[in-house]
Amino acid sequence: MLAQILSTMLPVFLIAGCGALYGRYRTPDIKGLNTLNMELFVPMLVFAVLADRQAPLQEYTSLALAATVVVLGSGIILYPLARVLNLNLKTFLPPMMFNNSGNMGIPMLVFAFGEAALPAAVVLFVVEMLLHFTVGIYMLDPHTSIIRRLRLPVIVASIAGLAVNFGGVPLPQWLLETLNMLGGVCIPLMLFTLGVRMLDVDFSDWKLGMLGAIAGPASGLILAWPMIAILDLPGLQVAALWVFAAMPPAVLNYMLAEQYKQEPHKVASLVLIGNLGSLVVMPIVLGLVFAAGYV
């Protein structure tokens, strides 16, 4: 079991470590790399996986429902805590709800459970992304145009991929191979840029960051448990949901906090300390998943 955990965690954190090491001595254009990734490579991977008719997406509807409950339920569960501690709801709740299902989630699930986990990883990522750009944006600014946000390349690729899959449209193998090769670039690039971002950890609000590093995964895991008990999920999807529920906050939370001027320094602490906390949380969760024999 230890070998399985190490074989999953080491590639993730070694690639992120390379990004941190490179960023320590150079100043890479992270904004440009993230833009390229989110506008080209990630949409290609999402479309390729969702459009591939060999991946029957009807089998993932229960997983998508469970992921929705985990994301939205985390905000409901942690609302009383935020009130008791007199925390700004717009600052604290979004990072607790919208997790790192892209930068860390997709690579983690693929490294842990193999290529067979890629459709589940993409479904979880799409659910989180759709909720982030609808519910999440609404939480920060109820007056923001949702239609404009739904025009993002990742969202368009998701809708197109689902339409192709459910419509039974056959795609030539050479096209899928091309999309998969280009889309495959996004996985290591996500981890590399995450490593560079980790250099920006702000410990001025470390108490809030530590609270988030505990509360975020805890709320997700608490919600995942009844969903697994209620829904008849296959073993691989159960394993993917456990890992998804324990993911740290998405880096996108910080970018949106900057855009909407929502205490970005505090959100940065929640995001980056939460991702550092995953060094402890993820090995524990993976150990429990492997011990349970879901895969």
UniProtKB/TrEMBL annotation:
Give the matching InterPro entries: Mem_transp_PIN-like
Q: Where located?
A: Membrane
Q: What top-level branch of life does the organism fall under?
A: Bacteria
Which coarse location class describes where this protein primarily resides? membrane
Q: Which Pfam families match?
A: Mem_trans
Q: How does it sit in the membrane?
A: Multi-pass membrane protein
Segments traversing the membrane: 6-23, 63-85, 152-172, 178-196, 208-230, 236-256, 268-294
| Any one GO CC term of the record | membrane
UniProt keywords, alphabetically: Cell membrane, Membrane, Transmembrane, Transmembrane helix, Transport
Which Gene Ontology terms describe the biological processes this protein takes part in? transmembrane transport
Annotated protein name in UniProt: AEC family transporter
